[in-house]
Amino acid sequence: MPTLDSLTFHDGAGTLRPRGRSSLVEAVDLVSAAIERCRAQGVQRLLVDATGLEGLPIPTLLDRFLMVEDWAAQAGGLVAVALVARPEYIHPRKFGVTVARHLGLVCDIYDSERAAQAWLLAATDVAAD
Predict the structure, then answer these.
(1) What is the mean pLDDT of residues 1-7?
(2) Which of 20, 40, 46, 64 could form a disulfide with 14 if both were Cys (CB 3.0 to 4.6 A apart)?
(3) Whole-prediction pTM
């Protein structure tokens, strides 16, 4: 089961790169813990690269709603999250991202780390203005 050991901090941002076999609940809880750790340390940006996780089912719409609901509560409006996932895990209309934004979580999902990092920097620059 992946742990927060892969959470690192650099230049005021957190990066979580979990690897290994995980259930969906374990993965969601791990991201929640990383968001909470970032918030507690005053870190406003978190990049989560979930491409190294194995055994995860494709989340249902309900799964997506519940995961971003938890992440929004952990972020408390203070942490922006960029998620990197394999394309088959990304909903065609980014349902989870839409719900998350309605719940106050600044987030987005990409299949490329470069795109996720660019978005995260732009999103937090806008939030700081």
Answers:
(1) 87
(2) 46
(3) 0.93
